[in-house]
Amino acid sequence: MGYAALVQVEVDPRSDLTHRHSILSEFIIPQLKELPGFKGALWMNDGQGVGTCIVQFDTREQAEQSFEILTPSNGPRVLHSGTCEIELEA
User: Fold this and answer.
1) What is the CB-side half-sphere exposure of residue 33 using CA atoms within 13 A?
2) What are the C-alpha distances in Å from 11 to residues 1, 38, 49, 79?
3) Which residues of 50-76 are buried (b: 16+ CB within 10 A; e: fewer)?
4) What total number of domains does the chain contain?
5) 90 is a domain residue
6) Is residue 55 domain-resident?
7) In a domain, 54, yes or no
8) Host domain of residue 64
9) Could you read off the pLDDT tens digit of each residue along the chain, which spans 90 residues?
10) Is residue 14 domain-resident?
11) Beta carbons of 2 and 88 less than 8 angstroms apart
């Protein structure tokens, strides 16, 4: 089934949604799509300060390589990151 890179970051609930989406669309997503094994990604926001990203890849190694893109040093504070094997999709 594959593997997923999971990243949770601190997001200011008052920050500009258009600005956040433009950074993802112009920089992060194009870089991720160039990585081997990329299958797709989701970005979620709980509205209370936590943003979650899940990016799906073919292998664990490919998922781990995405952290360089997903957690840049000048990006938001990372609360949690890791890889998970995908056991089931619906």
Assistant:
1) 7
2) 30, 25, 5, 10
3) ebbbbbbbeebebbeebbebbbeeeeb
4) 1
5) no
6) yes
7) yes
8) 3-85
9) 899 999 999 999 889 999 999 999 999 999 999 999 999 999 999 999 999 999 999 999 999 999 999 999 999 999 999 999 999 999
10) yes
11) no
